[in-house]
Design goal:
The complex is a heterodimer of chains A (497) and B (493). By secondary structure, chain A is α/β, with parallel strands linked by helices. Chain A has a domain of 255 residues: Amidase signature (AS) enzymes, CATH 3.90.1300.10. Chain A contains 16 helices and 11 strands. In chain A, a hairpin with a 5-residue loop joins strand 10 and strand 11. In chain B, strands 1, 2, 6, 7, 10, 11, 12, 13 and 14 form a 9-stranded mixed β-sheet that branches.
Chain lengths: 497, 493
């Protein structure tokens, strides 16, 4: 394969080969990305940039490559969602309440990446505490989607909450990125920026050292430009961690090797409940094209039913805020983080610190969560939501008796305008309608770019797999990727230099 | 429980008799070197904030991991309380804001505790044994400590205790007097210490009780209760119940009603007073902690723990009684683990059971009391004590000699057998030697001989003289027998 002369156009697989073949040094690779991200400040994709750290790590990588001691991700420059705690590097969760927090520890997932030789370009912007679907709730301002509708200059959202990571990839500011996905926060931004986003099975990647949003739903995963790159990154990120009781001790397979198996004979389920009112015709048409692509490669198409799908979004918006209201109680201004000045009483300190430290959406969710857990409401809300969750998981178990993976749209629409949904939280929450079921059931799901909307904006398809069967998800994703031949690129309107 | 026994516990009010109803929630710190969900140490008295992990301080992204040792101790305690062990239990978050609670929630067990119903038998001084129901035992984290008296404007925090494993042991409201409450706590403490699952040091906060008190007319349904928080000694439990019961009776008799509330016991005044309502008005918003999996055990593992449980006070007491001790002596010996351990070490060193118990109550406990020492602090090792008792039994020394020997070992230490040898304390049972001594005393005191013949009770004077002349070494029974024969007195006078 002919390599681009611009190293920011590489895939991780390309870069791995180029580094191994000494066609480029890790330092050159890192420098090319530093140059790109320095010229992309208009996108606001990064909260903190760490070029010095990247270059010094690149030097180490070059030495290792020279010594023949390259590790699996040696010299690969990555963007890290600013929800992963990074030792000595500011970690904010895009919140004022942590705007000056420097962890003394490294999250397990990022440590795994550094141990494999990857290097960090910086910490990417996100919705505050990962609460949002448009990256507009960040204390550090919205991220701008590199994509614009054909013939228009309107700024669009990159999706969320991993909007900074998605943007960093779409704009070629990094070769790969980490995301976290609680209700769609990897897959939805991946879909609307034209990249690949994989949310692994709950328990596949450690949550230790990642700022918690909703503990029973949060899961870290890779965001990349190709399915192969997602396989390469996941292999390194995944694994059992004794420090996370919910991480699962099951072997990490060679995901990349699984890609070449093809989809012949694979049973692909099409859940009828994912055909919903208000979703544009073109999304439906794309879904049908996806069905055709898989069929053409030898997959068997099965109609399945997930009858409790319509309860997923309301159940999610009870469970996630409930857990969040408790998880975020530690941000009280007492030990670290923002502390309201000049308050002399304890209750006042809590109230002022948290009112100043948290943005509107976070405050809204803390209040919803506090409410649904309150005495007298717990049974009606939290307990019922948990029961729905059980039913949704059962839906999937039953569907997977008939098929191996499911194919659905990833999002109900392409990227929308900045500010166009901020005044209506419910319409914002609807962005996650196709993705939250997967979190509630703890399953792996992946968004793969599959085409462009009539306005020329990326659209994605989602593949959902059985628990711990990321291999089949990746295989099916690879089949979609191959057939779709998605190679559109956003115009580089943001470049300042 | 007899009607009479019941009546004796009733309290007199101005308008008639009242029954006090008490239930205890005991917080017992698990004797574990590490905390419940973090690897941080738990040693008492460490420098402030020197035993705090990232988890205990609730830094972002930190996750709890259960300490299996603590779970095992909770299950062992449940077995010791003859309680149901729940093979499936769940950790919940109890949410409230306070600076010494870093995460803003305490990990506890709410609806599904690790241990269910059990019972404890409590011996009362009057000889009555009461049965106290255990409702549940659950595991939870302790909070840190807020220190308000170090600076006029600031409160300081010490998080050393934050995350330390506690067992909360909840009794049924089966206690009917302050004495019963204190006796229950003492028995519970003994069981925990026998099991080794809690060191029971109330001074160090390893054990403390929330005391629920209500009063009612005999036969009436339960009254409204007040909860007295964090009472940290047996004496304070008793005092706080006495005060609180009297307060409630006086209030009701004056036409008032009891408000269900949380109160604090002030050990300086001996009174209870309500906590500020802000401190108690909580909706804890309990929900299962999503960071932790449910606790599940195999029955076989529980059975294995049950098999390896040490002998507990009730079984020990039964065994001691079987070995010849009186029920009273047996219950005194088992009440404190140190006393039992000491006693059993004496027996192991060769002392006969009953003689060992007698020596303890006749010779040792009194000396310890006078010196203000616990049994573990006394100067005589159980091995030395065992040797002393052993020498009495095999007649190497007389009981008088044993008293002297105990004094010597108490003050000077040393091996009792060597002391008996070197100081010639050996009892003389050789009849000819004693005959000679008796003859010598008799011939030196002819007038006394006549006196004794008329007044046999005065024979004791002769015994004393012979003992004196033999340096206390003569066997007093032999002296007595020979004297009586020689003086022509009846065998037993």
């Amino acid at each position: 394969m002919a390599l681009s002369s611009d190293p920011t156009r590489f895939t991780i697989a390309d870069a791995r080969d180029a580094l191994a073949g000494k066609q480029i040094s890790a330092t050159e690779l890192a420098q090319a990305h530093i140059t790109a991200l320095t010229a992309a400040t208009a996108l606001n994709a990064f909260i903190t940039e760490t070029p010095d750290r990247a270059l010094s790590a690149a030097e180490t990588s070059d030495a290792r490559i020279a010594a023949g001691e390259a590790r699996p991700l040696e010299g690969i420059p990555l963007a890290i969602k600013d929800l992963f705690c990074t030792k000595g590097v500011r970690t904010t969760a895009a919140s004022r309440i942590l705007d000056n927090f420097f962890p003394t520890y490294e999250s397990t997932v990022t440590q795994n990446l550094w141990d494999a030789g990857a290097l960090m370009l910086g910490k990417t912007n996100l919705d505050e505490f990962a609460m949002g679907s448009s990256n507009e709730t960040s204390y550090f301002g919205p991220v701008i989607n590199p994509w614009r509708a054909r013939g228009r200059n309107e700024d669009l959202v990159p999706g969320g909450s991993s909007g900074g990571s998605a943007t960093a990839l779409a704009a070629h500011l990094a070769l790969g990125a980490t995301g976290t996905d609680t209700g769609g926060s990897i897959r939805q931004p991946a879909a609307v920026t034209g990249i690949v986003g994989l949310k692994p099975t709950y328990g596949r990647c450690s949550r230790w050292g990642t700022v918690a949003f909703a503990s029973s739903l949060d899961q870290a995963g890779p965001m990349t430009r190709t399915v192969r790159d997602a396989a390469i990154m996941l292999k390194v990120m995944a694994g059992h961690d004794p420090k996370d009781s919910t991480s699962v001790d099951t072997p990490v397979p060679d995901y990349e090797a699984a890609l070449n198996t093809g989809v012949k004979g694979l049973r692909v389920g099409i859940p009828k409940e994912y055909r919903i009112d208000g979703v544009p015709e073109e999304m439906d048409a794309l879904w049908q094209r996806g069905v055709g692509w898989l069929k053409a490669q030898g997959a068997e198409i099965v109609d399945v039913s997930l009858p409790h799908t319509k309860y997923a979004l309301p159940a999610y918006y009870i469970v996630a805020p409930a857990e969040a209201s408790s998880n975020l109680a530690r941000y009280d201004g007492v030990r670290y983080g923002h502390r309201a000045p000049g308050v002399s009483d304890l209750i006042g300190l809590y109230e002022r610190t948290r009112a100043e430290g948290f943005g509107r959406e976070v405050r809204r969710r803390i209040m919803i969560g506090t409410y649904v857990l309150s005495a007298g409401y717990y049974d009606a809300y939290y307990l019922r939501a948990q029961k729905i969750r059980t039913l949704i998981a059962r839906d999937f178990t039953q569907a997977f008796q008939q098929c191996d993976v499911l194919l659905t749209p990833a999002t109900p629409s392409a990227a929308f305008g900045i500010g166009s949904k901020t005044s209506d939280p419910v319409s914002m929450y609807l962005n996650d309608v196709f993705t939250v079921t997967v979190n509630l059931a703890g399953l792996p799901g992946m968004s793969v770019p599959a085409g462009l909307s009539q306005d020329g904006l990326p659209l994605g398809l989602q593949i959902i797999g059985k628990a711990f069967d990321e291999e089949t998800v990746l295989r099916a994703g690879r089949a979609i990727e191959t057939a779709a031949g998605f190679n559109a690129q956003p115009q580089s309107w943001w470049r300042t230099a | 429980m007899s009607e009479a026994g019941n009546n004796a516990k009733l309290l007199n009010g101005a308008t008639g008799k009242w029954e006090v109803v008490i239930g205890l929630e005991v917080h017992a710190q698990v004797a574990s070197k590490a905390k419940l969900f973090s690897g941080a140490a738990t040693a008492f008295g460490a420098a402030p904030n020197s035993q705090v992990s990232l988890i205990d301080a609730a830094l972002p992204g930190m996750l709890p991991v259960i300490n299996r040792f603590c779970v095992e101790q909770a299950v062992r305690t449940g077995l010791g309380l003859k309680a149901k062990i729940n093979l499936h239990s769940v950790f919940d978050r109890k949410n409230y804001f306070y600076p010494d609670l870093p995460a803003g929630y305490q990990i506890s067990q709410y609806k599904q505790p690790v241990v269910g119903e059990g019972e404890i038998f409590v011996d009362m001084p009057g000889g009555e044994t009461i049965t106290v129901g255990i409702e549940r035992l659950h595991l939870e984290q302790d909070a840190g400590k807020s220190i308000h008296d170090q600076h006029p404007d600031y409160t300081y925090l010490d998080l050393n205790r934050a995350g330390v494993a506690l067992m909360e042991i909840v009794s049924r409201p089966d206690l009917r007097s302050s004495e019963e409450a204190a006796a229950y706590l003492r028995k519970l403490r003994a069981i925990l210490r026998y099991l080794g699952t809690c060191d029971g040091n109330m001074d160090e906060g390893s054990m403390r009780a929330d005391v629920n008190v209500s009063v009612r007319r005999p036969g009436d349904p339960l009254g409204t209760r007040c909860e007295i928080k964090n009472v940290n000694s047996m004496r304070f439990v008793q005092q706080s119940v006495d005060y609180e019961a009297r307060r409630q009776i006086d209030l009701i008799e004056a036409g008032g009603t009891i408000k269900q509330e949380t109160r604090l016991f002030d050990s300086r005044t001996g009174e209870t007073r309500p906590m500020r309502s802000k401190e108690e008005a909580h909706d804890y918003r309990y929900f299962p902690d999503p960071d932790l999996l449910p606790l599940t055990f195999e029955q076989a593992w529980v059975d294995e723990l049950a098999r390896s449980l040490p002998e507990l006070p009730d079984e020990k007491k039964a065994r001691f009684i079987q070995a010849g001790l009186s029920p009273y002596d047996a219950s005194v010996l088992v009440a404190e683990k140190e006393a039992t351990d000491y006693f059993e070490a004496m027996v192991a060193a060769g002392a006969e059971t009953k003689a060992a118990a007698n020596w303890l109550s006749n010779e040792y406990f009194g000396r310890l009391n006078k010196a203000g020492m616990g049994i573990g602090e006394g100067p005589i090792s159980p091995q030395a004590a065992g040797a002393i008792v052993r020498m009495v039994i095999d007649k190497t020394i007389s009981s008088r000699g044993a008293k002297d020997l105990t004094d010597i070992v108490w003050h000077e230490g040393g091996d009792p057998r060597a002391i008996v040898e070197s100081r010639g304390l050996k009892q003389v049972s050789d009849e000819s030697a004693i005959e000679a001594a008796v003859a010598a005393v008799m011939s030196a005191n002819p007038d006394k001989c006549e006196e004794v013949k008329a007044k046999p009770k005065a024979a004791a004077w002769f015994v004393g003289q012979v003992m004196k002349s033999t340096g206390g070494k003569a066997n007093p029974q032999t002296v007595n027998a020979i004297l009586r024969r020689r003086l022509g007195l009846p065998e037993d006078g």
